[in-house]
């Protein structure tokens, strides 16, 4: 091991002691830097042999040399098999997002189509845990693919897609019924049996059995015609015509029954992976991914990392992993990965890397889409960077502008107040750093106090000794509002700077809307001097400010609406002290609903099991505002 002395090691890491204690079994290792941050996750059949290779004289790549210099500690987790190590490695990569691993950053859950189990089932998009009863179809590669499917389904199967609250409140048919896109079950324009028939046909279609759907519709059309019900027969005829058109548009000829095609495009240190999903001979949709790459990463490593992180140990394991994955590059662990995916999917999964004829054409298509996506993304980046440069020409910050944050407040008559904090860098929105704050402890409707609350929440724990939080300190903070809101931000940072002795504080800028509130008439208010700056409507700097302000506004309103909706769904019984979930359920069950509870007098409330005389009086008083 004497050769390792030519490698510059971190002084806090005792290589010899570590290698003497490490096991020779299979497992996963995590490497930490001086700040105890995981910088690399790897796996090995023999941990001792693999880890010793990092400290040889000739370690190979520049990336590995840079990694070894930063190692201060290594954690080892032993596994029974190499397959277990592969799964654990991918789980750790997703958890820690290490600097020297290939990272596939897509933290959103996969979207599904859901047909609920209501009396009149609803068809809609679903994302998140599968807590709602019903039939789930997917997952789809993107939300756009789901919306496209919903639009298509609405033309073919006239079942409702409206929210339950809207459905329950209807007293007459809505516009969708007039357009022939809904059977209006909300107002009994269709019998439960006929509505359920359409729901069953929609389920068959989503399972890929469109030919069976057409056969059933043909039978129904012929039967309706024999019964001289020509209007209904015409509806079935129109459904059949639309379905056949869809089949022609979606059908993929040849061998592509069920497979995912992975296309890759590289441009210097950047890469784009385009995933093309084919199910039941139909193109279900596609999605582009932009992995974060360490230097000197090979194409084979990118493909292997993508397959591991995308498929292993996530919700795609619920019978939705395709039977075949087609990739353009072969890699070492394709056999092990295929075996693990087969176990997870409960059917055979094949990873094809040597493709001919049709598969090659799909690979070419996926690679072309990857190239287009990366070029488009870079074009957007260049546009965003140009806007940052234009904004800095206005404010002339010495070190330029790298990070911008913006705050906004949303409420209705002072209720359910929500503050938003959005973040932009030179690549665009940094959505992982977005934050919402539920504002409380202020006078309802006091926007100045709400702004002070939000700024304190975001920067209140900022300390010069915390390098991570100081890295995320923005260069500019935009405050959506006038001088009042800006003054609150000025007071806060003046106090914080005095207490914490900060080296720098952000430039604070208020964004005041013009008199008519039209885009292009915004005025910027500089902190301190309160100087007013008006930019031309064509200015790229103003366009950037508008983009950030609008995004902050959108994010605040979305949070406020969500909070308001939750509040509106709350039962008044939840506000009464002493009435928990069980007692609420008992009251509603025993008396027959909230309206009957409100009508009941104290004597009737006392008769409910578990409700004492005192509690009955409290409930009665609360329901009658006494």
Brief summary of the model shown:
The protein is an alpha+beta fold and about 625 residues long. Helix content is about 45%, strand content about 20%.
Strand content: 15-25%
Strand runs, count: 19
Structural class: alpha+beta
Q: Main beta sheet, described?
A: 8 strands, mixed
Please explain how this structure is put together.
The chain folds into five domains: 2-96, GIY-YIG endonuclease (3-Layer(aba) Sandwich), CATH 3.40.1440.10; 112-250, no CATH class; 261-272 and 289-374, no CATH class; 403-562, Nucleotidyltransferase, domain 5; 572-623, DNA polymerase, domain 1, CATH 1.10.150.20. It is built from 21 helices and 19 strands. Strand 8 and strand 9 form a beta hairpin. It is α+β, with helices and mostly antiparallel strands. Helices cover 44% and strands 18% of the residues. The protein is globular, with a radius of gyration of 30 Å. It has helices spanning 15-21, 47-52, 62-70, 82-96, 143-156, 164-169, 175-178, 192-206, 210-226, 230-250, 299-311, 334-345, 357-395, 447-459, 467-471, 483-500, 540-569, 581-591, 594-599, 602-606, 613-623, and strands at 27-32, 38-44, 73-78, 112-116, 123-126, 134-137, 258-267, 270-279, 282-289, 324-327, 350-352, 403-412, 415-425, 428-429, 435-438, 476-480, 507-512, 523-526, 532-534. The longest helix has 39 residues, at 357-395.
